[in-house]
Design brief:
Blueprint lengths: L3 H6 L2 H9 L24 E6 L3 H10 L3 E3 L9 E7 L10 H7 L6 E11 L8 H21 L5 E7 L8 H8 L10 E4 L16 E5 L4 H12 L3 E6 L4 H11 L2 E4 L7 H9 L5 E4 L14 H24 L8 E5 L3 H4 L5 H20 L6 E7 L5 H4 L3 H9 L9 H11 L11 E4 L8
Parallel strand pairs: 1-2, 1-3, 3-4, 4-5, 5-6, 7-8, 7-10, 8-9, 10-11, 11-12, 12-13
The structure holds nicotinamide-adenine-dinucleotide.
The site of nicotinamide-adenine-dinucleotide (NAD) has 27 residues, from helix 7 and helix 13.
């Protein structure tokens, strides 16, 4: 079932009528149509300002194909986006710079434009004033995301540890690109400089595992990895063998009909990989919703087993077997229900919150081996899973986001493929929400 309001809003005449009668008019989002490349920005005008990182940020924007302008917008149809370095902020007075910079420019940002702030993380801050100003950036970014979301504009904050500035380029590229269309209103942390690599053919020569690949987010993820040059192990339950065989033959991957809860799952994955496994993506997941008083033990157990226990078991076995080389990645799929909780989902939310705990832990512990572990937390994504939700709740799920719409499987896939790449190798233990700034968990 598609989003009717979004398809009406794509037509300028019906959009005006919708607006006149007070219906939500979600802005159709611009999404990437080609592979990752060094220069994906199409000659737009970008404003870049702030502290000592300003020049390197401007260099990244130019390297991506953008034009960095001061205030002269002649020849441009507005600003494609703004990047502001606030890493030098140390007192409440410094926040005035935000107003001075954004106030005259914010209305010039084009539809589906981008705002990225760079700040310092809370950890290691000098005193209450410095800690306060760092938190203030989060509040500012989230509010800007809400104000600009109706135009399809995203606003995010990259927090970077001192000494980890070399790790900013990858996430900055992702956030400025149309690949991050449904990522907005959140801080993303950069904790190390990570590894360098090419932006063309992002996963060329790599083997990755995607669980739950037969449909939905997993299928989109497998296809996106393959488009970036990866050999994909397409794992899903044996009953989906037809779907994963078709998928694997279309993308040059390997079908792996296997229940992830099988005690021999890790061994079977190692055999299918037949060499190093550069990335693992734990996407397989189920819901078995009931309020707790009506939920029997079976519904509880199967949800925890598929969504959490098997993820812990299989990942630890693969890591202990040395299957993931330095430069590799582990990406887990959580949910905003794991952040905010949800009625009827005590089992699911516990499993997805557990995924967040594991991400934080592995983010630190695997870092020493050169392996990055991060997670995505999808919000409302248009898949068979959300098609099964009653109409009223489904409609609320769509509209309760800053972007006024649900995301697509490709939005989560793009985030996963980025988090599995060298571009995210300076990120450790992040949970990137792909939720359009959903009210739940925001
Ligand atoms: P989906 O139901 O469309 O697809 C899930 C896939 O996982 C299916 O192909 C299924 O066969 C497979 N799977 C289930 N149990 C398995 C097992 N034991 N072993 C191997 N494969 C198994 O779901 P989706 O909407 O694409 O969601 C994918 C992931 O994203 C899940 O982890 C889900 O919890 C998470 N998520 C989805 C949304 C959303 O809005 N769709 C929101 C938040 C989180």
């Amino acid at each position: 079932m598609g989003d009717t309001l979004l398809s009406w809003a794509s037509n300028s005449t019906s959009r005006k009528m919708m607006s006149a009668v007070g219906l939500p008019t979600p802005q159709p989002l611009t999404r990437a149509t080609s592979r990752w490349c060094a220069a994906p920005l199409e000659h737009g005008a970008w404003a870049v300002a702030g502290g000592s990182l300003r020049d390197s940020l401007a260099e990244t924007v130019r390297g991506m194909g953008g034009t960095v302008v001061d205030d002269e917008l002649d020849g441009f149809n507005g600003l494609s986006g703004v990047v502001f370095d606030a890493t030098h902020f140390s007192s409440a007075e410094d926040l005035r710079e935000l107003h001075a910079f954004f106030h005259p420019r914010v209305r010039s940002i084009v539809k589906c434009g981008r705002v990225v702030l760079i700040g310092r993380s809370h950890t290691g801050s000098g005193g209450a004033g410095e800690a306060a100003v760092r938190s203030a950036l989060v509040g500012f970014t989230k509010s800007l995301s809400k104000e600009l979301g109706r135009k399809g504009i995203t606003a995010n904050l990259l927090t970077v540890d001192a000494g980890a500035e070399g790790g900013v380029e990858g996430p900055l590229r992702f956030l400025l690109d149309s690949r991050s269309a449904f990522v907005t209103g959140q801080p993303i942390h950069v904790g190390s400089s990570g590894h360098q690599g090419s932006w063309d053919g992002l996963h060329e020569g790599r083997t990755v595992l995607v669980t739950g690949a037969a449909r939905g987010i997993g299928e989109a993820t497998a296809r996106t990895f393959a488009a970036e040059g990866a050999r994909v192990l397409c794992l899903d339950v044996p009953s989906t063998v037809g779907a994963i065989e078709t998928l694997a033959s279309e993308i040059g991957g390997v079908p792996l009909p296997l229940d992830i809860t099988n005690p021999n799952a890790a061994q079977r994955i190692l055999e299918a990989a037949d060499g190093p496994l550069h990335g693992i993506v734990h996407n397989a997941g189920i819901t078995r919703d009931k309020t707790l008083g009506k939920m029997d033990q079976k519904l509880w157990d199967v949800t925890i087993e598929v969504n959490l226990a098997s993820v812990l078991r299989v990942t630890e076995s693969l890591v202990n077997a040395g299957a993931i080389p330095s430069g590799g990645s582990v990406v887990l799929v959580s949910s905003i229900a794991g952040i905010a909780g949800n009625t009827g989902q005590t089992n699911y939310a516990a499993s997805k919150a557990g995924i967040i705990g594991a991400t934080r832990q592995w983010g630190e512990s695997l870092r020493a081996d050169g392996i990055a572990c991060n997670a995505v937390a999808p919000g409302f994504i248009e898949t068979q899973m959300t098609d099964a939700i009653p109409f009223g709740i489904r409609e609320a799920g769509r509209r309760l986001s800053n972007l006024n719409q649900g995301g697509l499987p490709i939005d989560v896939a793009e985030a996963v493929v980025f988090l599995s790449s060298h571009g995210a190798s300076g990120m450790h233990g992040n949970v990137m929400r792909v939720c359009g700034g959903n009210l739940l968990g925001a």
